[in-house]
Design the sequence.
């Protein structure tokens, strides 16, 4: 089966800007106390190995390690993975796609998707959540970071690297619910100087088969 065109576009776009992106993002979390807080909450809930999917140059993966987690990263961009390995030689990084993970069923205790599903067309997103559920153990945690639609519908916008989508937080939570995730909590952050959109964060856990999920 041919690779979906949006995956090729996204991978090539991030390959092209990888060095610049890594330089700009390297110390970003230092300036974002609310973002660090939601990552810390994820670390409190997660049990077992955790994967950052769409890890880029690995800064969030390294932060998760610093929070005491057994963390590794996966990204579609080979250049990003090379940079991550160079920057964090003590951590594991692999090239891969979030919708076809080379991981066993129930292998993970947690997944962080930090502004990585944003490039996935809305109609393609349910299989991603199904794959997240497959590789998470029952009770395993999923943390999503994304751009909020701020009262509007799902909207495509001109992201600096590749086309991306802003999501109504309730609609994205609903997709996760349909895939078998229950919400633990959410956090919205207003844009700081230089940012255009409100940032959304959803913290969820995978429910066991046959368990009714409450919205």
Sequence:
């Amino acid at each position: 089966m041919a690779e979906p065109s949006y995956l090729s576009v996204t991978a090539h776009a991030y390959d092209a800007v990888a060095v610049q992106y890594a330089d700009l993002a390297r110390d970003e979390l230092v300036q974002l106390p609310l973002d660090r807080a939601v990552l810390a909450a994820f670390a409190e809930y997660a049990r077992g190995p955790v994967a950052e999917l769409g890890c880029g140059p690995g800064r969030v993966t390294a932060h998760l390690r610093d929070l005491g987690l057994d963390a590794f990263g996966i990204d579609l961009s080979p250049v990003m993975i090379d940079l991550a390995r160079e920057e964090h030689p003590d951590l594991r990084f692999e090239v891969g796609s979030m919708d076809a993970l080379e991981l066993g069923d129930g292998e993970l205790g947690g997944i962080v998707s930090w502004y990585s599903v944003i490039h996935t067309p809305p109609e393609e997103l349910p299989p991603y959540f199904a794959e997240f559920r497959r590789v998470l153990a029952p009770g395993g945690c999923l943390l999503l970071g994304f751009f909020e639609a701020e009262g509007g519908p799902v909207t495509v916008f001109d992201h600096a690297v590749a086309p991306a989508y802003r999501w109504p937080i309730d609609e994205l939570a609903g997709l996760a619910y349909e895939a078998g995730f229950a919400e633990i909590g959410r956090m919205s952050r207003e844009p700081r100087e230089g940012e255009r959109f409100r940032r959304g964060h959803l913290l969820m856990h995978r429910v066991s088969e046959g368990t009714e999920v409450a919205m």
The mean pLDDT is 92. The radius of gyration is 16 Å. The longest helix spans residues 5-25. Strands lie at 50-53, 71-75, 93-95, 108-114, 136-148, 155-157, 164-167, 181-189, 199-206.
